[in-house]
Write a structure and sequence with these properties.
Chain A is α+β, with helices and mostly antiparallel strands and 333 residues long. Chain A has 13 helices and 14 strands. Classes of the chains: A alpha+beta (333), B alpha+beta (774). Chains A and B meet through helix 8 and helix 13 of A and helix 3 and helix 20 of B.
């Protein structure tokens, strides 16, 4: 293990000023499940680790009957999975948080940490030269992409975004509150996670600048039905081979405000706009679900070894749409 | 041994059970000695390279650095677990993760930092990745600089020969297989067959993923070297350390503490030899402890294999011809490659002994993948997936029940064995195991037409039969000693380590039975080469059988001597005496008891009994048999296979401790399930590097992935063992993958021929089946 400084931040401002002080050399830690592995394997070598878990009052779920739901950045995945309010009104998020990794990881891991996690890539971890390790190549294009490679193309790095909760949040139209010395900005999920991009010297899959941190996740209040379905090789401690989150507001069986988002198949949660357009203002049927699934994957560009994810994703979408229609109880009143 | 049994056959609490459950049990990784250094192994980032220069000046600058061993610093003495074929460090590295150097420092962190600071200049050599291509004449060589003096030792009494360094094929070449098993006339067999099937099977390279990564603490003190080490072959390690350090063997002591799982792969290796060398060099105790990635790469994993199989049968259910050509990706070394190959091509052909025409060739090929070796279910896990799938296909083609088809062609008591020439099999309780398993899974529910369930989620049943060694390995020797000391304590000494399967419990139960005492009244210790008599170790499920026979013989001899001494004291004939509950008495004088300690004291000291077992000259050969059953649900739209239920039915002769036997069967099912569904190394096609050595990506099944597993234990005895027992551990792994594959066929009408059977392969097979219009 390398040597680094460790700062227990006492407030958001405290963490932000430490970020400014250390710049590139700083890394934020909350649960640590992602970062500690990378430090132990020498994938990142920070000068300073800023511990956010010591910041009070960033761990909350504030539902409200009239206004938007607010979740503190440090709320653990277990708390989210167990929350009765979330299970009722924001089912996709509770379901996604409940199938992340293992119980131990869910007890430690936070919502903001989960959406900010780095990619899980064999080539990066094995020390292959790649975009993320300072090289100019991505082995996933011609190499072993069967589990962790994008089927939707990508820029530079072709690794999937591995988060479960980000997919659900995208389907629930969540907004990410980002703080910095410059103030607070609010980003939509597609702004916050938009594939791999250079942020200063780092190629990362979120758009947090080096001096920013996530403080809150806000989800608009709507009478939404939603669901998250994860397909993985194991029932515990595994990343999604493919996953889907769907949400809709139903008015007399007519689908309004539909969102269909795929996970585990692209460099960010992949919103299926064409499929959504087919479904919106219609009533669901097997034929419509199938057409939506076909439309969702029309633009797929699988790599050498992950073509099977195309059909798999179609099935997941089709089944998720039909099962959402069949949900008996109408959530969120 | 006859009459009612008191301890044997009972599920008594295991000796180490409580300590394991409470975390009290100590492993080498828990050990710490005063003034101890930590050693870290520097590993090759290249699949194949020659070390040009090792610059360790930067490592010296790391605070805490103590010493380094490079290939310049170690004796050029060949050693190895199975063959003398490795230098402690070599100038050529032959897989990603191969040992380059060893660095010692004051603590783990500085050892790791120092190892990372070492600068190594490599000359890259072409990596050999594909066993089939590597067998070709013009292939680059996986070993470019072969150490001189290596002999390939085939075993089975055949002579050792110098290794041919000009080809990657061990003891063969592009045209000549390493081993071949041939009987009858194969082409005639096919011409007589009514149905013939042909398939290609590919199986992944898998790691055993023992809970405990390897660890060793070495102490060198005044010409004595002691190693506390997680190895299952302490006597081979003792021999290797003595060879390399040029010490007398009795100056080397190996304490093989309890192992956190060994599965055949925890054998003598460079890490332990280097720890001993480092301890001598620094004059301080040295500890080495593998990370999970090291444990999965620098192990002896199950080899990847390709089988080209063709088999034919007649309409009446006779298996008439079986032909196969197998390529075994052995890693760079010899190891046990040839021995495994021999068993691959013979054992299944013993199981289906009635098949008159056989030709099975195995090419053992050197590659720059990690080294391979015997891992739970050695050779049979490698062969049965292909054999059992093809037999299932033949049975379906002639509309015969797959169980009946197999039983019709099976081995029978007294048949001669091609896997053990000159020997005949003693008992075959295969039919009983198969019928018992069929009843437990509800085999009568199996639909004869594949893919007949409506809807996208299709269910089906499948089965496989298995033959595996149960301890009757002619290459092994076991010795045991039983001592009755003047305080009346009875102790068992055996050199076989307890690798986590509670062998100590089972062995002591047999001794307790012979003396008619409680299990707790038999003491013992774990394997320690300075205390215990020789044992070749817990391989091929031999402990209960081979070490068990030695222990029972030792106990019987000690008891005979005890009764002789007691007869003098009691003025009776030994035949009139009874031993039990810590005392001896005459049958007619039950009120007049002398305790065992008194007999020993009056005899002038401890009473010893020794027992040896070696099956070399036995005509009767014991084999274990099993039948595995699976019920699955295949989702034909996602490729997901849900295992609904497993039944694992075993001919164990007799269960000495049924709870431990069940534990073995459940553990084997879990490991076999991983082999079947999720595990397997993915190698980068460009560089030959393993990609998924990470614990997450090794993908052993989690507890949530385990279906309901029902063990069925068939106890009909085995005459060559004093208590009628056969070893039953590895065998429980072997049948799981083929049973699941056959159940998938029954469910969805697809033959999966590649392991692991992941959703991408299921979907591909479905697409091919649709494409072919079947």
């Amino acid at each position: 293990l390398i040597k680094f400084e460790h700062i227990n931040a006492v407030s958001t401002d405290d963490a932000l000023s430490a970020l400014r002080r250390y710049g590139e050399g700083a890394r934020l830690i909350a649960g640590g499940q992602d970062l500690l592995f990378r430090i132990k394997k020498y994938l990142v070598q920070p000068e300073c680790i800023i511990n956010l878990k010591t910041i009070p009052h960033l761990n909350y779920i504030r539902p409200s009957a009239q206004s938007n739901l607010r979740i503190g950045a440090l709320t653990t995945l277990s708390e989210i999975a167990r929350s009765a309010e979330l299970q009722r009104g924001y089912a996709a998020l509770a379901q996604a948080a409940g199938v992340v990794a293992s119980p131990q990881i869910r007890n430690m891991g936070t919502l903001a940490g989960n959406i900010c996690q780095d990619v899980w890539c064999w080539y990066l971890q094995d020390g292959f030269s790649c975009w993320k390790s300072g090289g100019k190549f991505c082995d996933l294009a011609g190499g072993d992409s069967r589990y962790y490679g994008s089927i939707m193309g990508g820029h530079l790095c072709l690794s999937n975004h591995p988060s479960d909760t980000a997919v659900a949040l995208a389907a629930l139209d969540a907004k990410i509150h980002v703080a910095s010395a410059r103030g607070v900005r609010v980003a939509s999920m597609s702004e916050f996670l938009c594939g791999h991009n250079w942020i200063g010297p780092r190629l990362q899959s979120h758009t947090l600048a080096l001096d920013e941190l996530v403080t809150e996740i806000e989800i608009p209040f709507r009478p939404t039905r939603s669901a998250y379905v994860k397909f993985a090789l194991r029932k515990s401690w595994d990343f999604a081979i493919a996953s889907v989150a769907v949400s809709a507001v139903m008015q007399d069986r007519v689908w309004k405000d539909v969102r269909i988002v795929l996970g585990g198949v692209a460099t960010s949660p992949h919103r299926c706009a064409e499929a959504e357009a087919l479904v919106v203002n219609r009533t669901m049927s097997a034929e419509l679900a199938d057409a939506a699934a076909q439309a969702a994957l029309k633009a797929a560009k699988p790599l050498r070894m992950n073509g099977y994810k195309v059909d798999l994703s179609k099935t997941l979408i089709r089944r998720a749409l039909v099962s959402l229609e069949e949900q008996d109880s109408k959530p969120t009143e | 041994v006859s009459g009612a049994l008191f301890t044997v056959g009972k599920s008594v609490a295991p000796v180490y059970g409580l300590e394991k459950a409470t975390g009290e049990l100590r492993f080498p990784a828990d050990m710490s000695l005063p003034n101890m250094l930590w050693m870290k192994i520097l590993r090759s980032p290249h699949a194949h390279a020659r070390i040009v220069e090792v610059n360790w000046a930067p490592a010296r600058m790391i605070p805490g650095f103590a010493s380094i061993l490079t290939h310049h610093d170690v004796p050029k003495v060949l050693f190895g677990p199975y063959q003398e074929e490795l230098y402690p460090l070599d100038q050529e590295v032959r897989f990603v993760g191969d040992t380059v150097a060893a660095v010692a420092a004051e603590d783990w962190n500085s050892a790791e930092a120092a190892a990372r600071a070492v600068e190594v200049r490599y000359e890259l050599l072409p990596p050999v990745r594909d066993a089939e291509m590597a067998a070709e004449r013009d292939s680059p060589l996986a070993v470019a600089y072969m150490p001189a003096g290596i002999l390939a030792r085939p075993g089975g009494g055949r002579p050792a020969t110098p290794i041919d360094a000009s080809t990657n094929v061990l003891r063969g070449d592009a045209l000549r297989p390493t081993v071949i098993n041939e009987r009858g006339d194969i082409e005639q067999g096919f011409s007589q067959s009514d149905v013939v099937v042909e398939r290609v099977f590919r199986q992944s390279h898998v790691s055993a993923v023992a809970h405990e990564p390897r660890a060793c603490v070495a102490l060198y003190d005044r010409g004595q070297c002691t190693l506390w080490c997680s190895v299952q072959d302490p006597y081979q390690l003792q021999d290797a350390v003595a060879r390399v350090l040029k010490m007398p063997k009795d100056a080397v002591r190996i304490v093989s503490t309890n192992l956190g799982g060994a599965f055949g792969v925890k054998v003598t290796g460079r890490f332990a030899i280097l720890a001993a060398l480092m301890a001598r060099r620094t004059g301080r105790p040295v500890k080495v402890w593998f990370t999970r990635e090291e444990e999965s790469l620098d192990s002896h994993n199950r080899s990847a294999l390709t089988h080209y199989v063709k088999a034919g049968a007649s309409r009446d259910g006779s298996l008439l011809a079986f032909k196969a050509r197998t390529f075994l990706d052995n890693g760079f070394w010899i190891g046990l490659g040839e021995n495994i190959a021999q068993a691959i091509c013979t054992r299944p052909m013993d199981l289906y002994h009635r098949c008159p025409n056989v030709k099975w060739e195995v090419f053992v090929v050197r590659t720059n993948h990690p080294t391979t070796g015997p891992y739970r279910g050695r050779a049979d896990a490698e062969s049965h997936f292909a054999v059992e799938a093809v037999l299932d296909e033949l049975a379906c083609a002639i509309n015969m029940d797959p169980i009946d088809f197999r039983l019709k062609n099976r081995l029978r008591e007294g048949d001669d064995l091609c896997s053990a020439p000159g020997k005949i099999v003693s008992t075959v309780w295969l039919e009983e195991a198969a019928r018992g398993g069929a009843k437990a899974i509800g085999w009568e529910r199996r639909l004869p037409v594949a893919g007949a369930t409506p809807g996208p989620r299709k269910t089906g049943l499948g089965m496989a039969m298995v033959i595996h060694s149960c301890g009757s390995n002619p290459a092994g020797t076991s010795e045991a000693e039983v001592v009755i000391d003047p305080q009346g304590r009875i102790s068992l000494y055996s050199g076989t380590p307890d690798q986590g399967s509670e062998q100590q419990t089972t062995l002591r139960q047999m001794v307790a039975e012979i003396f008619d005492i409680a299990l707790d009244d038999v003491q013992g210790c774990n394997a320690d080469t300075s205390i215990c008599p020789y044992d070749s170790g817990p391989f091929s499920s031999r402990t209960v059988y081979a070490t068990g026979i030695a222990a029972a013989r030792a106990a019987e001899e000690a008891k005979r001597r005890l009764l002789e001494q007691a007869a003098i004291l009691l003025r009776r004939e030994p035949g009139d005496l009874v031993a039990g509950k810590g005392a001896v008495w005459a049958r007619s004088e039950a009120w007049r008891k002398i305790d065992l300690g008194e007999v020993a004291r009056r005899a002038g000291g401890s009473i010893h009994g020794k027992g040896i077992h070696n099956a070399k000259d036995d005509r009767l050969f014991a084999y274990g048999f099993a039948a595995a059953f699976a019920e699955v649900e295949v989702d034909v739209e996602t490729g997901a296979v849900k295992i609904l239920r497993l039944v694992s039915s075993h001919d164990v002769g007799r269960a000495i401790n049924p709870m431990i036997v069940e534990g073995q069967i459940l553990g084997g099912a879990a490991q076999g399930l991983g082999y079947a569904m999720t595990e397997g190394f993915c190698f980068d096609q460009r560089t030959g590097a393993a990609l998924n050595q990470w614990f997450l990506d090794l993908r052993t099944p989690s507890i949530l992935d385990m279906p309901d597993v029902e063990p069925v234990i068939v106890e009909l005895g085995e005459p060559t063992h004093p208590f009628g027992a056969k070893g039953c551990s590895e065998i429980s792994y072997v049948g799981i993958a083929p049973a699941i594959a056959n159940a998938i066929y029954n469910a969805a009408g697809i033959r999966l021929t590649e392991l692991p059977m992941t959703p991408d392969r299921v979907l591909k097979a479905l697409e091919e089946t649709r494409g072919s219009g079947v």
